[in-house]
Design brief:
99 residues, 5 helices, Arc Repressor Mutant, subunit A, three-stranded antiparallel beta sheet, single chain, globular, alpha+beta
């Protein structure tokens, strides 16, 4: 799909997704989820060494902007990356940050 084929609404959605991703902790969360596995808030906050409330806050933003999927299983909420293509963006960010 070419850029001129995107609607204004699609461009707005893409911009909002990028704004949501544009935070160091959210990039770290996406790096952790990049392997495609579903992870709980507990797994995420322990891995990143942040408070559970902080992890939940960032996960909520990423979910609300369409970056992550959330599913409930019993007491736990599991998070995963909504679109496989976002892994390419995450790889690009990692590569560019290391240059």
């Amino acid at each position: 799909m070419k850029i001129n084929e995107l609607t204004v609404e699609q461009l707005e959605k893409a911009a909002n997704m990028l704004k949501a991703i544009a935070h160091p902790m959210r990039i770290a969360i996406l790096n952790f989820l990049e392997d495609g596995k579903k992870r709980t808030v507990t797994e995420i906050h322990e891995k990143l060494g942040i408070e559970q409330s902080t992890a939940s806050h960032h996960l909520g933003i990423l979910r609300d902007k369409g970056v992550l999927l959330a599913s409930r299983e019993g007491k736990n909420s599991y998070y995963s990356i909504r679109h496989n293509k976002l892994s390419t963006l995450i790889e690009c960010i990692n590569t560019c940050a290391c240059e």
